[in-house]
């Protein structure tokens, strides 16, 4: 559980934007293509992709390669086979509808679809007979129905009752959001008190309503009038609102019922939530689960040092950090992108020990610290002071046997040195760098550097840490030793 919280805490604002952008793109694809065969194929490709990633993670090289080929081939098939459906979606009158918003058509209730279809048929005077079942089973009283199971839509209803359709003279059985059967033959009513203007469709509608509790909609081919039959009674419907009301009452809905739209909104919200969860899981699989390891040697940066103190030395100048993250990210990471910082704001004079933790290390987004070696750093701080120290020449080697070093003086012979108090209190003399006597064969002058040890010591004079040796050499005479 703690590992999960650690990973969640490592998500940066760029990662959140990354997840939301991909989730929104997938959500738009869902909104645009839901209910179509394209969406089913896309969902299948998504499942194959998950399977391919799992195969790659388990090291199933051939299976992973085969899945990649199938996915690429399926993507081409979608474009070729479903090009018309894709074209219809992308040819929106409002281009913005592709990127945001939800088509109102997606929220049409079955009652609204049926009403719109009925009055479209009525305007064109195309006869129609539609049956909406209730509780009674009427399969024994109808004949000749052709199984259809098509999704309810205005286009589907208009095509069923189009005069050139062989099944247009029969009744369409509509249950919920599907057209179950078409071309069904209904029992005719035997009543003798019906107006002469009623044709076969009217008698068939009354016949079924007399034997069951179904509601039957009739569109007259001769007059374009719309009627409904229920409980053995036939009623003319004057407008679309009256028809919608009758349909809602038949289905047990109220006139202001918005249940279908609320249900659709809930589906969209649930789909968006699932997509965000899935994309987040995929993001973790790339940036955390399928991790790549890398090690870098990173220099230590010391910060917030008290100006009145001097850094005399540290046990480490660099540490090795072991990192993990997505392969492409880890292959591009450089030392400059990783910072190891130690704050000396609370350090005291003398030896200070620091333990490196996650707080001391700055990493790029998506990169996780696995280990740092070594973890402990010793830093020595001191208060700088000024001290006058004599200079002494550090001779090495030996003069030629026939020469004598008669004298040697320094200019200057005393220098002012600045350094840590703990260091300078132990130093009484400053030496020059080593001067070889082997190379001296005559009187002269040499400009030499001072051997400042430790290197944190500084000479105050403007001589840049140099002194001049003036020496006199003479030949050895008989009797000199």
Quick structural gist:
The chain is of the alpha+beta class.
Structure characterization notes:
This protein is α+β, with helices and mostly antiparallel strands and 481 residues long. The protein has four domains: 12-102 and 259-286, no CATH class; 106-250, 3-Layer(aba) Sandwich (YojJ-like (1); 290-382, RNA Polymerase Alpha Subunit, Chain A, domain 2 (Beta Complex), CATH 2.170.120.30; 384-475, Beta Complex (RNA Polymerase Alpha Subunit, Chain A, domain 2), CATH 2.170.120.40. Helices cover 35% and strands 31% of the residues. The chain has 13 helices and 22 strands. It has helices spanning 2-9, 13-33, 37-57, 61-81, 83-90, 96-99, 110-123, 154-160, 200-211, 240-250, 259-289, 327-332, 421-424, and strands at residues 128-132, 146-151, 171-175, 178-184, 215-219, 226-230, 233-237, 291-303, 310-314, 318-326, 339-343, 350-355, 361-362, 368-373, 376-382, 384-396, 403-411, 414-420, 430-436, 444-451, 458-459, 466-475. It has a seven-stranded mixed sheet. A seven-stranded mixed sheet has the order 17-22-20-19-16-18-21. Strand 5 and strand 6 form a beta hairpin. The longest helix is centred in the middle third of the chain and has 31 residues, at 259-289. The two termini are 87 Å apart. The mean pLDDT is 81.
């Amino acid at each position: 559980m703690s590992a999960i919280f650690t990973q969640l805490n490592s998500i940066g604002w760029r990662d959140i934007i990354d997840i939301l952008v991909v989730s929104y793109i997938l959500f738009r694809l869902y909104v645009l293509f839901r209910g179509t065969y394209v969406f089913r194929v896309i969902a299948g490709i998504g499942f194959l992709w998950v399977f391919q990633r799992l195969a790659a993670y388990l090291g199933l090289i051939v299976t992973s390669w085969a899945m990649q080929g199938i996915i690429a081939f399926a993507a081409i098939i979608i474009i070729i086979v479903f090009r018309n459906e894709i074209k219809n979606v992308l040819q929106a009158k409002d281009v913005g509808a592709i990127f945001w918003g939800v088509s109102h058509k997606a929220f049409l209730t079955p009652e609204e679809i049926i009403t719109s279809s009925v009055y479209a048929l009525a305007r064109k005077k195309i006869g129609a007979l539609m049956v909406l079942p209730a509780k009674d089973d009427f399969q024994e009283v109808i004949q000749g129905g052709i199984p259809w199971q098509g999704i309810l839509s205005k286009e589907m209803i208009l095509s069923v009752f189009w005069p050139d359709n062989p099944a247009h003279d029969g009744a369409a059985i509509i249950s919920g959001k599907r057209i179950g059967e078409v071309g069904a033959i209904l029992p005719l009513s035997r009543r003798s008190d019906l107006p002469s203007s009623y044709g076969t469709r009217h008698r068939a509608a009354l016949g079924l309503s007399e034997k069951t509790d179904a509601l039957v909609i009739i569109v007259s081919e001769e007059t374009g009038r719309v009627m409904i039959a229920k409980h053995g009674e036939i009623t003319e419907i004057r407008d679309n609102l009256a028809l919608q009301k009758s349909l809602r009452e038949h289905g047990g809905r109220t006139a202001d019922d918005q249940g279908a739209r609320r249900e659709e909104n809930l589906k969209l919200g649930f789909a968006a939530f699932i997509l965000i969860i899935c994309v987040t899981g995929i993001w973790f699989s790339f940036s955390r689960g399928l991790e790549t390891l890398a090690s870098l040697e990173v220099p230590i940066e010391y910060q917030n040092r008290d100006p009145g103190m001097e850094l005399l030395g540290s046990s480490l100048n660099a540490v090795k950090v072991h990192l993990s993250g997505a392969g492409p990210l880890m292959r591009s990471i450089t030392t400059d992108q990783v910072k190891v910082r130690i704050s000396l704001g609370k350090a005291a004079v003398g030896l200070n020990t620091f333990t490196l933790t996650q707080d001391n290390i700055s990493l790029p987004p998506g990169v996780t610290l696995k280990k740092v070696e070594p973890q402990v750093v010793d830093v020595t701080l001191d208060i700088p002071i000024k001290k006058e120290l004599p200079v002494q020449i550090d001779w090495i080697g030996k003069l030629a046997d026939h020469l004598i070093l008669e004298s040697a003086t320094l200019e200057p012979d005393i220098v002012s040195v600045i350094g840590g108090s703990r260091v300078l209190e132990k130093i009484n003399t400053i030496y020059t760098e080593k001067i070889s006597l082997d190379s001296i064969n005559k009187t002269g002058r040499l400009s030499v550097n001072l051997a400042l040890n430790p290197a944190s010591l500084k000479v105050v004079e403007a001589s840049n840490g140099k002194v001049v040796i003036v020496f006199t050499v003479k030949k050895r005479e008989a009797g000199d030793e």
